């Protein structure tokens, strides 16, 4: 009993020895606040990235489209399958920490014919069945480190799924806002065509009455053709955008339902950015890079364990019996157990090269992790200044459109009164049409900037 207890304690102490470095998160310099942050909102608590996507995007039709994409998108299905694969790999790797027990049975029959020595068996049937045991004593932590790496791979695959979720929510929202922008542009083009057709009729009547020259008719026709030319291009872009959204939804290309108009989309009351340090826990791409680093670090221990002996405990227990030369025997018991050890002596530097390779991959993973943090901070900073400046541009564009509407109205009054030529009307009409289309683009860009900021802050991957 004393020897058994001593042996158990010795094995416990040896099994607690795990070679290789323990993981420690690398130091990454972070700013106290983001560059590009609006000074008026720098003191707001929380972060836009903490909000659920259905809180940020309040268009009910857009919410239904996002839910459909989360249920049917094929990229998401691929990500789920990879998680299942990683789960199976973890179970398989962890199983090496435990004994393996196999059962086997055999009953070979042997017969001998012709001249033979007196002691040769004429025939025999020997049956045997039992169990075999094999167990590698994990003295150096080979399989514990391998399990640690497999667990990190599983967590990395889960974070990869979160990345797909975030990208999918953002992609559907971006494509939907682009679609509503194209709808608005097409509507503006149709309204402009209708207005210019009426103007053309009036100019023709004036030309027939000898009030204006034929040149005014040509200029009015030029205005109408310019607006008509835009309609097919907008219709093409609308159908192609619908096709892109359909693929995101996991469906064949088809029409997409519409909800709120572009100018009536509800925006969050505030867009706080939060602290840069919170990105380390919120952004799935950073967490993915960290889990890849954890796995690479654990594989250093797996590689270093090859420097040390590997000890296996092998055993078997069986029963046997049979008939030989018409004489039966058995049953009889068979039992055996004993250790087996392999010791690395010479392998031409293979083990050392494996360790060097694992350390190099860990250094690469650490650099990628640090780079992912820097890129995340840059994306947030870019998104903050992008939203702020696009909002300012949209506000100025609205002012310009109002000015041009007034100018166009005045130029038409002046033309009807014979004060100016149709060239002034032509110039103002062209500028107004272009500015109205630019306003639709500015409204779209402001919404897209919110989507990009939301994604950059680590939002969008929560599921309802």
What does this structure look like?
- With 464 residues, the protein is of the alpha+beta class.
- The chain has one domain (14-96, 140-307, 353-456): Up-down Bundle (Outer membrane efflux proteins (OEP)), CATH 1.20.1600.
- It has helices at residues 2-15, 53-56, 60-72, 74-94, 142-208, 214-248, 279-282, 284-304, 350-416, 422-456; strands at residues 100-106, 109-111, 123-137, 310-324, 327-342.
- Strand 4 and strand 5 (327-342) form a beta hairpin.
- The longest helix is centred in the middle third of the chain and has 67 residues, at 142-208.
- It is elongated.
- The two termini are 59 Å apart.
Q: Structural class given helices, strands, pairing?
A: alpha+beta
- The residue fraction in helices comes out at 55-70%
Order of helices and strands: HHHHEEEHHHHEEHH
| CATH architecture designation | Up-down Bundle
The backbone outline, from C-alpha atoms, is elongated
Number of strands: 5
In CATH terms, what is the fold-level topology? Outer membrane efflux proteins (OEP)
The main β sheet shows up as:
5 strands, antiparallel
CATH class category label: Mainly Alpha
| Percentage of residues in DSSP E strands | 5-15%
Domain tally: 1
Q: Radius of gyration over alpha carbons?
A: 38 Å
Low-confidence stretches: none
Brief sketch in words of this structure:
The protein is of the alpha+beta class and 464 residues long. 61% of the residues lie in helices and 12% in strands. The longest helix has 67 residues, at 142-208.
